[in-house]
Amino acid sequence: MKTFKIAVLPGDGIGNEIVPPAADLCMDVAKKTGGFTLDMTNIEAGAALYARTGVSFPEESFQVCKQSDAILLGAMGLPSVRNPDGREIAPQLELRERLQLYAGVRPVKAYKGVPPVLANSKFAETNFVMVRESTEGLFAFRTNGIIENDETAREVMQLTRKGLKRVYDFSFKLAQSRKKRGFQGKLTLVDKANVFRSFKWARGVFDEEAKNYQDIKTEYCYVDAMAMNLVKNPWRYDVMVMENMFGDILSDLGAGIMGGLGMAPSADIGDENAVFQPCHGSAPDIAGQNKANPIATFLSAAMMLDWLGERDNVPQALQAGKMIEKAVEQALEKKVVRPQEFGGDSGTTQITEGIRNELAKL
Ligand code: ATP
Question: Which atom of ligand 1 is nearest to the CA of 76?
Fold first, then answer.
């Protein structure tokens, strides 16, 4: 029987409230489907560890992550704990960079039972995936920003052919696999090619890649127009790919479409490793109060099982991922859980219990 090694990093703030139940849910579902087991290793990293020890992510912990089949992460960083240069503590960015997790995958879906953010009846059809290039763009030199003097500051954006090709390929393949499941088979490149030459050049790389995927329709959209379109008609999109900073911003808009940050899952995927984590941060304003919505983390855990199942051809793991999503869907639709995030009265423990009960019935 296949055993998947999972590195579990709850991190800071609400990470400690939402990751343990997500890990339990994975164990529950693995028992239910059979066919695979999970060997989970808990790892401490983040701002709280830095405040205590002066180190945010020990090298041996990084190595455990690197050797594992997948990494399940909560959230890292606390506004009150900073690096000497003033930036927040962010081992999750270190993981992205050192493990070359170039595809930031953020599915956006309208779930029944979550108050729709748009009145249009087509809103219920909203189901698309944003792919955020996660290793370069405006983050490429994030530690080297230059404050020239008190009047001028400068950051550099970098796009490379290698970086673009791999994330475009990933996105085309994702559109193909979704097409098999009945989606449109369309990839939208989001950029700002009307203003910046580098984005115009990147369109050429995109068009070259597109030749290998004749079954996928393509289109371009400027990032500012996309911000408006995602508010006006998000249901018209299938897969979209964009530069790092654009993805950082639009993925929060995607979370808003889903009803809140506590609903939005994500995966950062590379050729060898992958991190699964909710889109939100450590939310210190609600930490320790049983207010956090753990659904984004549960859906991220579902993506993890799905990815492992696909990668190693373990159908039970694929099924386990689908079962977690189904349990979430049913709990929301039946209003067994009503997250406080959108006006309900269920706290973290009630949401967890409601979803575990739905899973038990599947
Ligand atoms: P980061 O920059 O690290 O992503 P952030 O500054 O965007 O973090 P978050 O920690 O994500 O901030 O929190 C933003 C807001 O969303 C806060 O008001 C927080 O309480 C709320 N929030 C975040 N996650 C959740 C959640 N799981 N459930 C409920 N509310 C949440």
Answer: 3
Where do the domains of the chain lie?
A: 1-102+268-362, 116-258
Choose between 94 and 160: higher pLDDT. 160
Dist. CA 312–CA 248, nearest whole Å: 30
CATH assignment of 116-258? 3.40.718.10
Contact in structure between 14 and 46 (CB atoms under 8 Å): no
pLDDT tens by residue, 277-309: 999 999 999 999 999 999 999 999 999 999 999
From the CB of residue 300, how many other CB atoms can be counted at a distance below 10 Å? 27
From the CB of 292, is ligand 1 less than 6 Å away? yes
Query: 281 CA distance to ligand 1 centroid (A)?
Result: 5
Of 42-46, 130-134, 136-140, 191-195, the least confident = 136-140
CA nearest 298: which of 350, 263, 345, 256?
263
Specify the CATH number for 1-102+268-362; select among 3.40.50.1100, 3.40.50.1980, 3.40.50.720, 3.40.718.10.
3.40.718.10
pTM above 0.85, yes or no: yes
